[in-house]
Amino acid sequence: xxxxxxxxxxxxxxxxxxxxxxxxxxxxxxxxxxxxxxxxxxxxxxxxxxxxxxxxxxxxxxxxxxxxxxxxxxxxxxxxxxxxx
Length: 85
Hints:
It is built from three helices and no strands. With 85 residues, it is mainly α. It has a domain of 58 residues.
């Protein structure tokens, strides 16, 4: 199977599953004695890390946007309340 397809599948995977896979790879790397055999696992780990980082960045942006909208609504409500006094 194409690795690009596998990475696309990972992008839709939830964070818990991604972290579990990272932990599994780390455990395998810790138990591996031959460095040559570890290269592909290190590469997978780096790719998973990038996917996780993008998920965090996306969620952070979403949280910031929602917070900004809530603050705007509160400020508008406060302005209305002041005008009605």
